[in-house]
Amino acid sequence: MSDADEIRRTELRGIARQIGEEVAGPSAADVDAAGRFPAETIGAVREAGLLRALIPVEEGGLGASIDEIADVVTELGRWCASSGMILAMHSIQVACLVRHGDTSALAAFRRRVADEGLLLASATTEVGIGGDVRSSTCAVELDGDAFHLRKQAPVISYGEHADAILATARRTPESAPSDQVLVVCEKSAYALEQTTVWDALGFRGTCSSGFVLDATGNFDSVFATPYGDVSSQTMLPVSHILWSSLWLGMASEADARARRFVQNAARKTPGVIPPSAMRLAELAISMQELHDLVHGARARFRAADGDPDLGASIGYATSMNSLKVAASSLVIEVVQKALLICGMAGYANASPFTLGRLLRDAYGAQLMVNNDRINANNAQLLLVQRER
Amino acid sequence: MEDTIRKVLAAYAKLPVDVATLGNQTDLYTIGLTSHASVNVMLGLEDAFDIEFPDSLLRKDTFQSIAAIADALGGLVDTANV
Questions:
Q1: Average pLDDT, stretch A163-188?
Q2: Over residues A312-339, mean pLDDT
Q3: What angle do the packed helices A66-79 and A81-100 form, to 10 degrees?
Q4: Which residue of B has its CA nearest to A181?
Q5: Which residues of chain B are within 8 Å of residue A179 when distances are taken between CB atoms?
Q6: Cβ contacts (< 8 Å) between B36 and chain A: which residues?
Q7: Contact predicate A15/A48, CB 8 Å
Q8: A155: which residues sit within 8 A by CB, 6+ positions away?
């Protein structure tokens, strides 16, 4: 890493912390209570240039790496998990555009994402396919240079607040369900008909309602690279890295509250180790597991970037799946342990040690792309995997 | 070899078309081979030819077409017979 990269990385983390302190943290309780989009936080994120962070400098972005944006997501997640998740999901779409946006129209769109601070959402699941994102019913219909796409999406997180939606679909109406492409659908050329209302236990600010997406556009807004390749090389590993980085941020916040709680107790009785300190020692082990798991996966992603054979291997795919399953379980473990330490002060909502929202948000981690589905994928891959 | 490959594809690839009509160069993913089904094809080929695909061949493009599968198996079956 060059000095300039190191400076930018420190700066980005500092910007995220400042947005957390000044905007995301103060509004998080209201975002959660009202189940509303964190407009002020995403506005600040846009203002600070974080929505364009992953786009190369020559195209108007900051040229940040996945590692750098992961740090930002971790930091933001400490203050408002919904805001961190929105930035993570947006950044996953930007990463797909940067790494696979292979038409001149997609390159032009990338520049607009940078210049106009566009917020990108995703429509990968579809009603009637049972949650298998590698299969589509809807198809891209071409008419001359124009495309039309109509998709019944059970979830489009912050769909109403996005400026564009990247949707998966079959390549043509004649294509097999697995022959998918990714399509950029722009707000000016789509209609969203809301079908379900998002009122959930946690991540309430992501506004993950269901919609029917009816989009038109120019055919060169369709990625030329098959979605299967976009998914295995970028969308899946980057999703699991950014999500687990977010969960690391949530866990770090719970850990910090528990530590403050124990240290407060220790100050009252110097010379006597508070009983809760033993639980803190156990919590530290879970935190270290989660931290090292996430950072190990980030290192593996960097290695795969320079080694296509590694990135295409089954071992890489299973490890990125295992990351998601393990991190989504560890975040719950950490918050629960922190709750035992803070006791009623953690259970209370109006308390500096409150952990209720973090616990509710944490439970979403194992459900968003259900861990059972991911383990089932790994179970099949392991039937032929040779080395780890 | 090609007949056996076609038999394995017919049994496990779950393609929406008759395997007998496929050209050797037809892109199997385009006509509907899923990653799930491709794992079953790998297992079926390993059993049929009594070989084991090394890690280096366990990748999407190995199973892109009948010709690609034959190429990959060519090296493995020869080695096994030596």
A1: 96
A2: 96
A3: 160
A4: B30
A5: 29-32
A6: 380
A7: yes
A8: A125, A208, A209, A210
Q: How close is the nearest chain A Cα to the Cα of B15, in Å?
A: 9
CB–CB contact A228 B60 (8 Å): yes
Would the CB atoms of A179 and B29 count as touching at under 8 Å? yes
Lowest mean pLDDT among A228-237, A350-359, B70-79: B70-79
Residue in this structure with the two tokens 């269901």, named with its chain if needed: A210
Contact A185, A152 (CB under 8 A): no
Q: Among all residues of chain B, which has the CA nearest to that of A176?
A: B32
DSSP label at B20?
A: G
Quickly state the pLDDT bin for A1 (edges 50, 70, 90).
low
> ipTM of this model?
0.84
Q: What is the pLDDT of residues A301-317, one digit of tens each?
A: 999 988 888 888 889 99
DSSP secondary structure code for residue B82 in this structure: -
Report the pLDDT value the prediction gives residue B82, as an integer from 0 to 100.
43
Instruction: Work out the pLDDT band at B79, boundaries 50, 70, 90.
Output: low
Distance CA A256, CA A253 (A): 5
Contact A385 B54 (CB under 8 A): no
Chain B hits for A314, CB-CB cut-off 8 Å, are: 55, 58-59
Contact B39 A380 (CB under 8 A): yes
* 3-state DSSP assignment of residue B52: coil
